[in-house]
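Researcher: Can you fold this with 4'-deoxy-4'-aminopyridoxal-5'-phosphate in place?
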Amino acid sequence: MRSVRPPAAHLARMQPYDPKYLPARAFLSANENPLDVEDKLRQEIARELKRVPLNRYPDPLANELRDQIARAYGLRREQVLVGNGGDELLFDVALCWGGPGRTFLNLPPTFSVYEANARLTHTKTENVPRRADFSIDEEAVLARVARGDVDYVVVTSPNNPTGNAAPAGFVRRLLDTTDALVMVDEAYGEFCDESVMPLLGDYENLLVLRTFSKAYALAGVRMGYVLGAPTVIEQLCKVRQPYSVNALSQTAACAVFRNRERFAPAIRGIVAERERVLGELAAMPQVHPYRSDANFILVRVPDAHRVWERLYDRGVLVRDFSGNPLTADCLRVSIGTRQENNLFLGALAEALGPSERKADR
Ligand code: PMP
């Protein structure tokens, strides 16, 4: 037999995740830290990597890293779990709290991976869309969970791609209203003043996600973690891949976490650049930037896809969200170095320029 029988039926309507990477002078499309780990720390990491045994399996639970993270937040090891990027942990949550006959509550527009994971795990997705300004429709969310059938909900704070953080008071009210698992995805939490971590002691149904991919410049290493109640972490341990976090990543992440204070100036620099870019965008005619608590900005512009093309022609890659009706005419730009941001601002002014627009048509 030379052919293969069809795969599982639910894959028919799915597409592989495509981050739409293209080579560019200013790569402002993946919300990474534009600055790599500084040399001195890289050397420290390199020295430690040399000593890692490659013939042995890694510690399945990365306990050294778990302990470091737990200590930093005043938690116990049993309240922390690390994963191969936050992505792996998001899938684990869907495996544990989703499943056939179960319901996930989504607050779109938001990170597309949540809904994909729900589909893969045969979980029903219910949507409470955000308002026109992308704030959460708090009363609608509370009313929806009060019906009692929601098994888990993800609140992304700051939200991707819209940039705004969820009010901590709302998260508390949500946790008080439901026994659904409330995953607060703080992948961009280091760029924002608010975190719901202080609520961890009070609520068994709160799970907080963080990642090393953004503020800590380790997107290439693949490392994320969740903080939650030991009872919840124990369930996640049942579904996770035993050796998903490799020994080299564990070592690199331990070194970075131990030295995380060294990232503080770069994080402050990104936040300062975000405010500068926001100011510049707000002053441009036809451009509507949304306030951001993250390391990226969502911008509404007329004819967004054409603007995306013209930016790319000028060497600037941003992410085009205009295909989604909830983010019609929106592009998302990551905050890069000052030079990259200036390249973007200049290219955007040209891309929107009236003379060129006429000549193009
Ligand atoms: N959550 C959000 C909101 C994200 O934007 C991302 C990265 N795009 C992740 C989680 C996962 O990040 P990682 O797998 O790199 O840790």
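Model: Folded with 4'-deoxy-4'-aminopyridoxal-5'-phosphate in place. Residues 355-361 have pLDDT under 50 and may be disordered.
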